[in-house]
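User: Round two. Same drill as before: sequence, then structure, for each protein.

Assistant: Same drill it is. First protein:
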Amino acid sequence: MKAVRAGWAGTAALLLAVLGTGAAAPGAHSGHDPVRPAGQDPILTLGRFGPYTAGQHATTYDAKLVPPGAVAAVAYLPGADGHSVVQLRLHGLLPDHSYGAHVHMKPCGAKGEDAGPHYQHKQDPKSPSTDPAYANAGNEVWLDFTTDAHGDASARAALDWKFTDRHPRSIVIHAEHTHTGPGRAGTAGPRLACVTAEF
């Protein structure tokens, strides 16, 4: 599966066709189907999880928690007003299970660490960033979710900014919901899977 640029109607149809109607995942960073911001057409990335191979969009590093064959869809909706939306939908994960997820700087690789650090709108001069002043849901893109009884979930981040030329390249799925306290802010446990996406 691959990234495509589609009109809003086409994007919504693809999401529904690949993932079904789904249920919104509970949690602070989850939401219902995306609301279209006025602006460019959405960019949609679809991937089916499996072992890493070059050119594959969705890679699992933990086949127990992110089973091969599970499906991910990422939609990026840049708005003309300087705002944007990132939407993540998943199908085929463990039922009733909580995961963390963030947008990362590099594409997926053979190891979870290959995706690099989180994308930050305002970069922390220190790396890795665990300062809540930088590692927070307003400056990064957090997409934590909890699956339903069928292993499906969706998460949505509404941003007060758009990605610049310093585009991120992936979404990493983590083992835990994201921590927010000093020294742990932005961390969410091991990297379980990765989706190389277009933003």
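Second protein:
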Amino acid sequence: TNLGTNAGTGKIDWDAKLVQSCSYIRPVQKPVNWREYAYPFVYGQVDDELFSHSEWRDCARQALGMRNFSTMVGDFGQHDDPMLVNYICSRSLPRRGIKARPEQILVTLGAQNALYLVAQLLVDQSKHVVIESPSYPDLRDILLQRTKAITALPVDAGGLILDEEVLRRADSVFITPSHQCPTTHTMSASRRRQLLDMAARHDLLVIEDDYEFEMNFLESPTPALKAQDNDGRVIYVGSLSKSVFPGLRLGYMVAPEGLIQQARALRHLILRHPPGHAQRTLAYFMALGHYDAQIRRLRRHLAERRRVLQSAIDAEGLFSHSAAHFGGTSFWVSGPDWLDSRILAERAMQDGVLIEAGDVFFGRDTSPLNYFRLSYSAISSERIPEGIARLGACMRKLKP
């Protein structure tokens, strides 16, 4: 059977058929074959040597055992793996200062899936939304599908700069207070209190993406904003993929039971539920202590890589805007005003160095071009100095 002929484009005008276009989406660009580059400063990827393959494999086998098989292979309908939800309730959330019941938790296909569900349920053309600038590009694109009334407020070393006149007119605000995306700044305690006070005064919903909360090098990291929420107006989103491996695509949402019921029903229409085997394997990985060991291993290696990268940046004269030295997996860097980081990324790639141009983290009409992101999650400490030296050489060649 020649499927190619039947699947051909023919004479159909697909642009005319579409009722919604996604051509406006500007994702962060990274090559699929990034592992083939000698100096991959790419975000959201994993160093294979820092992951315990054997322990994950053992948990996957255990999840396939007869005791778990009937639970794991069934259709959960609108429900989640109770073993995983129990661990999130009893271990993950208390670390962030959050108390929640199982009926207040929804397992999602990563944090982005949770943000999408929230946007579908709470945002439409009649709603005014506030986001950070710069911010997570996919969140902006998700919200643009629902409304054009989006205001981006700037961030500084203390996190989102609060503007009560703007927030007073808004219906919801999406923030990353623990490690702001992409600057990695942590929102100050005073601003957290001010934001919650403003939210209460103006009936504002707060959606907290607890971005990279596990990648904190402090003994006592700042509790989640949700931990200070006394009236249930903070919707909490967490990721389990970033601290295990990105391809796992598991996260969760914490919210009042009524909203979780609606999100669960919407998720059912989109994908029913995240795969049972992945949920149960992760549940065992957590319950047997492998997850905690993984976090400790990552923190130890990432702290060292951060130190090496900071030294290399200082040696090359690049100016980092990532002032916090206690967490995250990347640096947000500003080059000279004349720099176009898109061109720098292209030239550096030719020399084996991968970076992420920063324009996509801003709105289309407000995109400064001299910012870029350097992540150290997928590159060894030994390769960092040479990679930054090559990047510096590329930048000097571009100087007018």
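The longest strand covers residues 150-156.

User: Perfect.
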